[in-house]
Amino acid sequence: MKADSEPRLDPKDLSLLWVEAEGASEIAQMHARLFDPPWSEESVRSLLISPGATALIAKVRLHPANPPAPAGFIIGRIAADEAEVLSLGVPDPFRRLGIARRLVEGLVRAVKAAGCVRLHLEVASDNDPAIALYSALGFAEVGRRRDYYRRSDGSSCDALMLARPL
């Protein structure tokens, strides 16, 4: 896609919506475009109804005559006074528009309001854009899981364990 044809995101065109099980289909569809292996709709639904689970979907209105399009998601889980990002994704053509940052910030506000003092996540060690985002949001490496992510082509990748205080 040419730079001049990429979507321009006006903040009034972005909505963050809290979802429960009813958001499983949209999240699973986005997850399938972004991750290898993808999570099934049923696994997303089971996760969303589990205790402490919370999720946001980003919707973007690209044209006034069209309904908002799913433009990203974040799934988190609260356990006692800590929380974890379980998955975050923003599909093309919505990347590099600040959507992932807004999703993380939305989750941070919610888990902080719930009394959490720390937020954790894992990221593939070869996902440089995500690592840069998390670093900018105050996350720091607290551990590494060797060969944690197994890909369908047989390759594997380390998981970086990151955390930040709230």
Protein model, in words:
With 166 residues, this protein is α+β, with helices and mostly antiparallel strands. It has a domain of 115 residues: 3-Layer(aba) Sandwich (Aminopeptidase). Strands 1-2-3-4-5-7-6 form a 7-stranded mixed beta sheet, sandwiched between helices. Helix 1 packs across helix 2. It is built from 4 helices and 7 strands; from the N terminus they run βααβββαβαββ.
Largest sheet features: 7 strands, mixed
- Give the full name of the CATH homologous superfamily of the domain at 3-117: Gcn5-related N-acetyltransferase (GNAT)
Give unreliable regions as ranges.
1-6
CATH topology of the domain at 3-117: Aminopeptidase
Could you name the key traits of this structure?
166 residues, alpha+beta, Aminopeptidase, seven-stranded mixed sheet, 4 helices, 26% helix, globular
Task: Provide a brief overview of the structure.
The protein is α+β, with helices and mostly antiparallel strands and 166 residues long.
